[in-house]
Amino acid sequence: MAGATAARLAPNSGSATRFEANVATRDKPWVKYLVLGIGLSFFLIFLLLPLVAVFVEAFRKGWQAYLAALIEPDALSAIKLTLIAAAISVPLNLVFGVAAAWAIAKYDFPGKHFLITFIDLPFSVSPVVAGLIYVLIFGAQGWFGPWLSEHDIRIIFAVPGIVLATIFVTFPFIARELIPLMQAQGRDEEEAAVTLGASGWQTFWRVTLPNIKWALLYGVILCNARAMGEFGAVSVVSGHIRGETNTMPLHVEILYNEYQFAAAFAVASLLALLALVTLAIKTYIEWRAGRTIVEETTP
Length: 299
Known about the structure:
By secondary structure, the chain is an all-alpha fold. Helices cover about 80% and strands about 0% of the residues. It has 15 helices and no strands. The longest helix is centred in the C-terminal third of the chain and has 37 residues, at about 260-295. It starts with a helix and ends with a helix.
């Protein structure tokens, strides 16, 4: 009797639960429009409007003034230095991110949780503080400053310092994209490959890398975007030497402070284009990764 009663009540209980869930999400129309209005207003005011303003101001004096601002020697030097810093820091962070994610996800070792915490350190430390740390270590009055001066090695107010600062602020991006994914995937496939006689490199190239390729590309894109757009840490260690240690964000600041607004917005438009390209590639990778998952799970 009790079992029959429970069986009769079970469907009603489920229906009641589903009904309550539907009621909980069945808001009045004005609530929906209010939420949409707030979201769209923030998007238009804080995202779209500033982006449009950058391009409007960049082309205010016409194409000739725009191109002149981009091919000016100091601007070309800033673009070149930005690309150099990104070209060095991104591959190094790629190696570190993959190694750290593989170690954390596939192995157990003392201090594992401390390593995970330290990877997030650049997210919690101000970029300006990071730059000051490098000045304290490698500056003329820093720990290694006298030795570097004796051997005529320049790190602060030179390209090496800019690269070091860029690496510091960007190294969590790739690792943080890979660690959750590799932990969720587990170790079964790698252990099976090793059992079948595969070496460490064969296991990585044929098992691990295909499983993480989309997350790896996603992390590389985010890392590259941050490397090219970094301002705080680079500003501290660069010295603002025009034509030598100014990256694109620093060059924009100098032009704006000198009231060269059209030139400042012209260079800033390149950074805005970088953001748009990054967003497009990111969207494509997310779509492609989702499609791959569907294809793999579809019988």
